[in-house]
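Researcher: First entry.
Model:
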Amino acid sequence: MKIEYYQLNHPLDNCLVNYRSFPNVYVEGYIFKRNLIILISTIRCDNLDINNLPLLNFSSIFHMDPILEAQLHERIMKMVHPYPKMLPNFWDPTISKVVNVPVNSGTIRVIHYRPQYLISKRPVVVVPGWGVTPTGFRDMFEIFYNYIEFYYVETREKKSSRINHQHGSFSLEQNAVDIQTVLEYFNINERDFVLMGTCWGASIILYGLINHILQAPTYVLVDPMHRLQYPHWFLNMAPFIPVWLLWLLKPLLAYLKLRNHSLPTQRKRIIEFIHHADLWKWKKAAFQARNFELIGKVGQIQEEVFIFNATTDVIHDQRKYALIAQEIPNSHFFYMKVPEDLRERLIGLIGIEFAFTLSSTGYPNELVPYEKQIIR
């Protein structure tokens, strides 16, 4: 790793270092030393210059009126299934239609749920995060159940995909193409619908918009990751690490992930995340995403984008979501604070609001109180 020293022109806490001082270098790690900063330049990004954007007041953006917060919590709890143990699993073939959709060099799994009596105005297409299993979105389904039609699209790094080991690509471009293939396979692209992504799924959607791959009437993104949250040296080494060694390291990886998470919901999610990891796919996907970076590039997006945040943790830095929204000219940013154990239910609530609102009428009025003004 190359270590360089640069003078700071802006407080790093606001994530707005003077990039003109060191073009094409992304700040991954840093240590303060008097008036200098040590930069570990491990990621190179093209045209990374956001120095012309004003500083954001994060304390104001991520503040929520306690009364509004209590009302949001109460509304979610009213929609919770009265008998959670009786709630069916949406990935059960008797409940949903499970389809292995043909894509380049293989297939990916799509779960299509449609209630018996459809009362919503349009379907929601959900693209979940990296390596996530359907069990992690059971709380979301608890809100969707009997209300809306939705498609759950599992990207190719998931265990459910069947991708050619030798020739299959795991690039972001291919993932975005896969999503568009799914939209066309089910003829969703001929309807009014909501394309909704969380974490890495949201990142794929933004990549698809930057590169004009995806087309949808409405884009809803929850906690879009601006880059893959693994050390860059590890991403570069990925092709040389044998899969059997990664399998042996699984307990260590689980320990390292769990030690900074105390909430039961987070811990359960991480355990499932590690347990269901298809390591050869993760290895290829991580390496192909090693230079991926959204900040500095999403300004090219001209479509209207709705970005949501509710929680923050050691992996998801909520300030980055506001920065992404600031850079996209036609975006809206919403802060809807809830406890971590209600995050997926909140995603369900957001999905329902958009499912009951046609794209021609704008975004749901119920979400207006949570929108934050982002200066550009």
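Researcher: Second entry.
Model:
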Amino acid sequence: MIMFVTCCQKFAVKRLFENSTHIILEIRITYVRREDASADCQWLYFENKSEALIKLWLKSSDSSPVVEEQFFEQGYLKFNCQQATFIEKFNSAQYTLERKPSEQLTEQLGILIHNYLS
């Protein structure tokens, strides 16, 4: 897990999924501790073309030893140790993403996330 420390803001990338047009990642916010540890985690959606960074609002999740599923207000993410599929709720667009090591988060996106958390 990679840690970004920028100007008192800290977050760790827990999961990173990417294709040529989109990035979906789960981060753990480390500069604030809450009683509810799940509140320290957020899922984010990044569109390369528009450079839009959007928080995915988690509604529920499910997991098995092989597959995990996250149900968001904006869509559905199903993933395993190699890839993910994201289906948008409002237009049913579907994206296949490859799982990447946390260390492959770009500096540009790291700065964008830092600004989002500020």
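Model: Note on the second entry: The beta strands are 2-6, 9-18, 22-29, 41-47, 52-56, 58-63, 68-72, 75-79, 83-88, 94-99.
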